DNA sequence: TATTGTTATACTCTATAACTATA
DNA sequence: TATAGTTATAGAGTATAACAATA
């Protein structure tokens, strides 16, 4: 079977990302979290009083789509919202949120190690800078 | 603003893939194609008499989800289906499909060159093998 | 028995427009 | 005027179960 897609870096990028995110989601399932939830928890934990809009900009998620995400985390008792002024609300981890984030950090650490280990040593240190050039520049 | 996500290769992979697929989709828009359409056209063009199930396995798309995709390509007059036996159908490009694929190939070529050019030269040759290790092994 | 093509369905993710209230 | 938070909605992508017909 002839597969011309296998020569294309762009296609490899999409398939690799899909495979890795599927694996990451599988590892997060026991925690009852999706990967968007984890990235939000990480940023809220690292930046107390972050607002929903700021968080959305950092994650490149539309304001409107933050609503169900933050609602989910709030319903799960992982975050609270405290008014900063009349229109903004600061996001904060609850004790349960801190605990869940600690669990998530362990999953992340193991997942990232596993991901890196899959890459042949000769190419390993080049992946992160190459990827960063594709989305941060 | 503190962003611990920026240290994670897995996060960079997801964001890079998202950014690149968004750009690729933008470039395909004038052709009236999505990237799944293009990958299907490429594989059908390279493998006459490929069946829908075989194509789905190569693209890692469920059989059921091939139906709307191939229906779209058929409605656009880009492919035809000819019975191979009582239950399988071989997929073939029409003349319009060949022409559209030729256009798509030019878009792909320019896009892939642009993508590669974004990567610092020192890391450039390492990206494809690193990505392949993540989804093909 | 396994596979092909298909229908139906549901869930996730993403994008846009519009509204209210506040800065 | 611009921004924050929200609602509603629609489009994609993806996953599962089930079915009839055929290998």
Give an overview in words.
Two copies of one chain form a homodimer. Chain A has one domain (4-116, 124-135): Winged helix-like DNA-binding domain superfamily/Winged helix DNA-binding domain (Arc Repressor Mutant, subunit A, Orthogonal Bundle). In chain A, 67% of the residues lie in helices and 9% in strands. Chain A has six helices and three strands, in the order ααβααββαα. Chain A has helices at residues 9-28, 35-46, 52-59, 63-75, 95-118, 121-135; strands spanning 50-51, 79-83, 89-93. In chain A, strands 1-3-2 form a three-stranded antiparallel β-sheet. In chain A, α1 packs across α5, α2 crosses α5 (95-118) and α3 (52-59) packs across α4. The structure holds a DNA duplex (23 and 23 nucleotides).
> What is the topology, as strand order, of the major beta sheet of chain A?
1-3-2
Tally of discrete structural domains of chain A: 1
Kindly report the name of the CATH homologous superfamily of chain A: Winged helix-like DNA-binding domain superfamily/Winged helix DNA-binding domain
Oligomer: homodimer
The major β-sheet of chain A equals: 3 strands, antiparallel
Termini separation of chain A comes to: 37 Å
CATH topology of chain A: Arc Repressor Mutant, subunit A
Task: List low-pLDDT spans of chain A.
Answer: none
Order of helices and strands of chain A: HHEHHEEHH
Biggest interface between chains: A-B, 51 and 52 residues
**What's the number of extended β-strand segments of chain A?**
3
